[in-house]
Amino acid sequence: MDILPEIAENVRHGEAVKVSELVRKGLDDGLSWEILLNEGLFKGMEVVGELFREEEIFIPEVLMAAKAMDAGQKPLEPLIEGAVGGKKMGKVILGTVKGDLHNLGKNLVGVMLKGAGFEVIDLGVDVAAEKFVDAVVSGKARLVGMSALITPTMPYLKTAIDALHEAGLKGQVKTIIGGACVTQQYADEIGADAYGDNAGEAVEKAKKLLG
Amino acid sequence: MAMSFMERLRNTDDVLVHFGPIPTFLAAEYGYPLEEHVSVWIVDHPGEFQDACRRIYAAGHDSVQIGTQSASPFRSKPFGQTVVDRVYELNYRTAALTREVTHENHYVVGIIGTTTPDFLEPLGNMTYGEVYEGYMVQIKGLVEGGVNVIAITGNEIEQTEIVIRAIKDRYPDIPVIARNIFYAGKKGFRTWAGLDPKAATARLHETGAEVMGAACGLMTKSLNTSEWYPAATALLKEMRQGTDKYLMVQPDPGVPQLINGKTVWPVSAEEMASEVINWVNVGARIVGGCCGTGLEHGTKVSAVLRERKVKGV
Q1: Percent helix / strand / coil, chain B, rounded to 5
Q2: pLDDT tens digit string along B182-234?
Q3: B230: domain range?
Q4: I need a surface site. Which of A166, B1, B14, B56 has the fewest CB within 10 A?
Q5: Considering only CA atoms, which of A26, A110, A111 is closest in space to residue A76?
Q6: Which CATH class is domain A91-210?
Q7: Is-contact B216 B291, C-beta < 8 A?
Q8: CA B250 to CA B228: how far, in whole Å?
């Protein structure tokens, strides 16, 4: 099935139009949405993740690949919706904490997580603790990823984690934090389950936490 | 004798000491909350801002970067349309406030930040025209408010190029300091988009900007603070391969840590003072620090440079 490596290759190179065409062709040729998604699109993003971790490609390439992956997922969406357990890796809530408007790192993490098969709900920036809690409850999420880029907003990571624990969600959901000034030590101090130094590492740790 | 910024660079061999981090300085000393829009805060607290500028000059700095990096329509957007509508006014008033307390042979440096929530097409949704027109409002405010120089720092080099085009089109007499942000990685220094210092600097050289620089960024992933500023020297050497124009360097004093509720910037003024001559020897004519750098860094560095001038080294 040559079309699958071709899809992966075009995702890697950010060729959104080509990816969309190939996915449609794949469906016409009788391939299942699972194979096209996992062996085509996600395989492409897996390569992107590795290359990004190795610093062979950089943020612009990752963002273009993400667009290509999204373009490829569109024709599959109606089929995925109808199926049971479509996103096998589970649901992840992402957000930048209250008072903080930075989003690039969080967005990259979202891109990588989607590419690894997670279902990502991005709450955006300036997110209050209650909003994280509500999203975890309503989404039955298994992982929350929180970002704080500047030192004044870092303490809110603890506020949000405490709120999740106080809401009795400690057993249901794991927490992973990130941000330029955040460290493993800080994560340990505030009771986060994991710390991601960059988007690639975040995905690896997410897989370990939920595996 | 009063000299313009470019006369100072061309007709003397002076090295200018520049103060970069108005926002972190205002946060540390005057209670500015970092989550708020710094230019709105400055315009609401003119007394505090001018006091800060006076102290910065008194500490030995030749130029002040006036903290307008968020006062573009693009970076103001998350704060609401009311702030976006105030872009001209915020830049004008900040420049004017600084001008009032700036004396002869000191320079008001407007700063435009090209790291934005969105990106230029095709990565994002910003168009060339929108970017050109949007930054022109900011540029107009800065120039009419009285800046001597405009510096530009940001991740998206294409936006920086557009800003410089706009300045050269409308205000060709305003000198431009064009800066990249570099991150130390597995293969050495790279910009956010993967350009090495020689290539990134050469790109900016082509714009016609008068000074090429580097600001912010990650100098090294090592936790050894004594390696930080020497890494900036290595960066400058690579940048020098991309241009023969004046160079500028402005690194943060390390990566900030939150320790017992306080923000601590790990790399000291002494460490900067002990490395600055190496920067000058590579060709830096303007030196300073970015976010987190204190007055003491500038005081120690200007003392070293004065001594060098006296010795004629």
Answers
A1: 50, 20, 35
A2: 999 999 999 999 999 999 999 999 999 999 999 998 999 888 999 999 999 99
A3: 5-311
A4: B1
A5: A26
A6: alpha beta
A7: yes
A8: 12
Residue B257: CA count within 13 A, CB half-sphere: 13
B44 Cα to chain A: minimum distance (Å): 20
Query: B185 CB near a chain A CB, below 8 Å?
Result: yes
CATH number of the domain where residue B73 is located: 3.20.20.330
B159-163's contacts with Cβ under 8 Å and 24+ in sequence apart are: B159/B114, B159/B116, B159/B120, B159/B126, B159/B131, B159/B135, B160/B114, B160/B204, B160/B207, B161/B203, B161/B204, B161/B207, B162/B128, B162/B131, B162/B132, B162/B135, B163/B112, B163/B114, B163/B131, B163/B135, B163/B139
Chain B: give the shortest CA distance to residue A46, in Å.
20
Tokens of B74: 């693009």
What is the predicted ipTM?
0.89
The domain locations on chain A are: 3-82, 91-210
Model-wide pTM > 0.90: yes
Q: Do the domains A3-82 and A91-210 sit in the same CATH topology, yes or no?
A: no
Nearest CA in chain B to A59: B193
Which fold, A3-82?
1.10.1240
Q: Are B251 and B229 in contact (CB under 8 A)?
A: yes
Identify the H or E element spanning B248: strand B246-250
